Amino acid sequence: MKKKAICIFLILIVVSLTGNGDYTEADSSYIVTAIGFDGEEKINVSVEVVTAGGSERSETPTSEIISGKGDTPMDAVFSLNSQITKNLLFDHCTAIIIGRNLSKTNLGEVLKYGNELKELNFAVDMFVCENASQLLEKSDSVSVSRGFDIAANVKETEREIGIDYKNNFYEIYKAYEHGENYSFPFIKNSDKKIIIDGLSVYKKKEERSFLTNEEALLYSFVTDNNGGGKIYLDDQYANISSGEAKFNPKTKKYEISLCIKDKSRRFSEIFKQKTEKLLVSKKQEIGFKTDKITVKERQGI
Amino acid sequence: MNDYDGLLVDESLEKNIELFKEIFKKDELLRIRVVNVGESKTKIAFLFFDGMVEGSSIDDSLVRPCVTSKDTPRQVDIDYILARVLYAGELSKTKKVSDILRAMLNGDTAVFLDGSFDALTVDTKGWRTRGIDEPSDERVLQGPREGFDEAAILNLAMIRRKLQTPDLCINSTTLGRRTKTAVYFVYLDSVANKKCLEEIKKRMEKIDIDGILDSNYIAELVRDNKTSLFKTTGSTERPDIVAARLLEGRIAVVVDGTPVVLTVPYLFSENFQSDEDYYLNFYIASIGRALRYICFFLSISIPAIFIALSTFHIQLLPTPFMLTVSELRSGVPFSSITECLALILVFEILKETGLRTPQSLGSALSIVGGLVVGQTAVEARIMSAPMLIVVSLAAVAGLMIPRLKGAVFYLRIILAIASAILGLYGFMIVFAVFVISVLSMKSVGVEYMLSLKSPNFQALKDTVIRAPWTKMRLRPPFNRNLVRNRSKK
Lengths: 301, 489
Hints:
- The complex is a heterodimer.
- By secondary structure, chain A is of the alpha/beta class.
- Chain A has helices spanning about 1-15, 75-80, 100-105, 105-115, 130-135, 145-160, 170-180, 215-220, 265-280, 285; strands at about 30-40, 45-50, 60-70, 85-90, 95-100, 125-130, 180-190, 195-205, 205-210, 230-235, 235-250, 255-265, 295-300.
- Chain A is globular, with a radius of gyration of 23 Å.
- By secondary structure, chain B is an alpha+beta fold.
- Chain B has helices at about 15-25, 55-65, 80-85, 95-105, 150-160, 195-205, 215-220, 240-245, 280-310, 320-330, 335-355, 360-380, 385-400, 405-440, 450-455, 455-460, and strands spanning about 30-35, 45-50, 90-95, 110-115, 120, 170-175, 180-190, 235, 250-255, 260-265, 440-445, 445.
- Chain B has a five-stranded antiparallel beta sheet with strand order 1-2-4-5-3, with helices on both faces. In chain B, strands 6-7-9-10-8 form a five-stranded antiparallel beta sheet, sandwiched between helices.
- Chain B is elongated, with a radius of gyration of 30 Å.
- The chains are: A alpha/beta, B alpha+beta.
- At the A-B interface, strand 1 of A face helix 10 and helix 14 of B.
């Protein structure tokens, strides 16, 4: 009898320690695919949720935007929750979009909230735009969700020009906590397509600089975040298979090594000029260690 | 027959006949034929049961020789009958009524001679048997196609034909207080594990039941773990399989009245062996063997893992798949676990119905099962398509391992319920309990997971894969003292 009681007690302990009481049927939840944060004094949270098809099984899922306001991101999500009957599932969220005004004032709170949410998956990316709710509400999505479109378009751009924007939420949060530079692609709607219109560079919770697409490309080479692609600088082009960069403390120069498959005649010269110009102009804002570079080229396959 | 243990044959033929008439007063199949022995005045009686004897053998070997016997002395005794009159091949003399009863009930004919205190029992067994058909549950594409039937003697002969060696031993006993079923232990003396033999005999001695009508009675009564989902005795209807098991050092238990022969010890890996694994090319056989292990895992775990992922660990599902699941589940009134259990039950009903339904109704059953229960239930939103697919896949995978059908059914349900309560944690807890319980099981004293528990290369050659015969030189490691080499190097 005593043994049985101990066994039952142990089983109950094991069961309760699993902390696994989140039973949710797939159709009784809203699947959040993107979250937008806006506002200055009050925070406006817009979530894009995908709902199952309508009355007919053949209908594809549709997305809708639900919004809520509050003093903090958590309050705003509470207010949003009160408007709906289903749970919000953040596990499949692919994009967190922050309005530019909010990014200048309350970015830290948004990052902390995202980290505390615990439900975000490891692949969620962050973006900045003029107005997150407006961007999400545009109803000309190619796929089921605006969030998917954004993530897909940015990935495509990354592949084309070789940039790694390093805008994964958890990487950003880590950089934020360590006081390092982090950056978000600035996105906007253009002709039914999401395009990248620059790169916002932050340190702690401040926006330190805004780079144009060309500057962002050169910045990616300097910071060793470019894996190679087909790039254009003015009328010059290069097909780069890989790129590496490191700061040499002896020469006090950034040493950039490019493996080039194919290029136009003056590409290297233009590349060096423009990169040095970027380093000079943004040295203070971004905190480059030097404004000098050396570029080594080798023939790639 | 215990009531007649002390009773002896009487000198008077009439009294003997009256005794047997009294014993079988409620059995109308008792036949009594009384004739004179040749020209003498001595009467002789033949007692037998209609339907259990070969009619022509009674006529030709017993009655005719008695009636037509010439030069018979005036006083005929039983020894004269035994030596000079009857033509029967197998007969024995006895005084005990209980022996005569046992023989008659087994198809023999009792012969009583007036004035003799002895009687004869003559082997005239002649009941109809089914013949050597291929067992329907153990069909093979290639290999022998003969199967056992209900007569143990014929079954033993079939085994002996496969193993033509004096090393083959056959011991018998009877079980069942009323049925007195003959049970035979068959083994190869130099190869069989004697500990297992003693153990199985000891367990059989302890059996006290009024009837043994099938070998499964014995399998249940002698098993090591009475409540386990897994059987610890092998069973087959094929003589070639029995011969192969005997060559591996196992012991076969042949039960009269059933074509199913038991083999012990039985290992977990045997559940995944098919009869024709050894008759096909080892490459093909190995694929089938590995697939059976995979299908076993899939069959017990697919519904459970799907429930855990779609209700507890949604983040682990790819988003498009999650959306599809969510969309297809919309409007379904039941929870995932209810759907799952209902579908498992429906599939079992269809499977059982398919087994019991006449073949002519099979196509109608397929239509009802496939269309009505499947498609219509999904269209009517009673069931969701993903769950239907998952349960069907599990059920189809389960068909690959027919020897584990009961265990798979229960494990599938238990794992699904555990997953619905605790997600993947529940699944892992129950799966761990299952693995531990199987690891601790024994079959007639031999570890149930012997070949998988402490794997060495030789033991693995006939488990997850089937190695070529040239590489399988050793028998399974039941007993280290055995003659283990199958062939010379």
